[in-house]
Amino acid sequence: MTTEAFPDTLATVLAGVHRMVRRRLRDGLTAPPLRGAQLDLLRLVAARPGIRVSEAAKELYLAGNSVSTLVNQLGQIGYLRRETDPSDRRSARLLPTPAALERLADWEARRSALMREQVAHLSDEDRAALAAALPALRRLAQNMHEEVERV
């Protein structure tokens, strides 16, 4: 593969893996599937309960009104609770509901099982190559994150 083709090929492969993981995890769902942005917000709120809408928008690189729409959608299905921030009455803090935490735990368990199953089908050499690539992939993600922060 040429040096010029590598970045595009990497992006295509990563997107394809991500898309297939999402598709496979939709199979067997008993609840309606969540869209990517809904799941991203839910995971963020579960990791940082009490996060403000504006902070979530910045963290997810979304417009504030887009996050507000997602909050309303997730609130309607019982996954997010919005409460007034006691330190700033104009601001709302976001909290996951027990149903949301249960759904996320199920999603994480199913994702882990899927990846373990798929990685087990690979050769020892392929598993070693993927393990060796993880630090570089983390640096790539960090570089992209830092670049967006500077803009």
Structural commentary:
- The protein has helices at residues 6-26, 36-47, 53-60, 64-76, 98-120, 124-150, and strands at residues 51-52, 80-85, 88-96.
- With 151 residues, the chain is mainly alpha-helical.
- Helix content is 69%, strand content 11%.
Number of strands: 3
* Distance between the ends: 32 Å
| Strand and helix order | HHEHHEEHH
Shape designation: globular
Please estimate the helix content: 55-70%
Multimeric organization: single chain
Q: Give Rg in angstroms.
A: 18 Å
- Unreliable stretches covering 5 or more consecutive residues: none
Topology summary:
Layout: H1 6-26, H2 36-47, E1 51-52, H3 53-60, H4 64-76, E2 80-85, E3 88-96, H5 98-120, H6 124-150
Antiparallel strand pairs: 1-3, 2-3
Helix pairs in contact: 2-4, 3-4
Key phrases:
151 residues, mainly alpha, 3-stranded antiparallel beta sheet, globular
In short:
This protein is mostly helical and 151 residues long. It is 69% helix and 11% strand. Strands 1-3-2 form a 3-stranded antiparallel β-sheet.
